[in-house]
Amino acid sequence: MTGPAEPRPRARRRRDTEHRLAHDVDVWVASASPDGAPYLVPLSFDWDGEALLAATPADSPTGRNLAATRTARLALGGTRDVCMIDGDVEVVEPAALPRERADLFAERTGFDPRTLDAPYRWFRITPRRIQAWREVNEIPGRDLMRDGRWLV
Q: What is the 3-state secondary structure (H, E, C) of 52-115?
């Protein structure tokens, strides 16, 4: 059995994270109710270079939590190649999202909430902190973004 690979430089971790944001389709979304009850679901997303766009039913636990607290924690990848994102949430009512943006989301994810009977809301999640690591040797220097600014 061999040990973990050499740790990636932080600049490489940023490139890997940006690639994952541009190419992954689903993200784990952790939210909490105002009284602190946690909730975790996978949602499809689209990345525009600044924020992730996701949609979920307005009256679902995730929809209610995101609208109430305006914060979320996201996870991309598996436990041995993870990107953790803490973000600020903007609630976007369906009529307020430009059609072109919703079309891009639907094309990329294969999911179009506009076609469903249940009322969905859009959520724009802007990262304020991003961490990325694979093994324990990448835990030092795992912060790639803080206060919404890339560190590398």
A: EEEEEECCCHHHHHHHHHCEEEEEECCCCCEEEEEEEEEEECHHHCCHHHHHHHHHHHCCCHHH
Torsion of CA 147, 148, 149, 150, to 10 degrees: 110
Residue 152 lies in a domain: no
Domain that holds residue 81: 28-145
Structure tokens at 123: 């959520």
pLDDT of residue 64: 97
pLDDT tens, 43-75? 999 999 999 999 999 999 999 999 999 999 999
Instruction: Write the Ramachandran bin of 110: left for phi over 0, alpha for psi from -120 to 50, otherwise beta.
Output: left
- Whether residue 3 lies inside any domain: the answer is no
Beta bridge partners of 6: none
Distance CA 92, CA 65 (A): 14
What is each CA distance from 95 to 41, 50, 59, 98, 145, in whole angstroms?
25, 21, 17, 8, 32
The CATH number that applies at residue 102 is 2.30.110.10
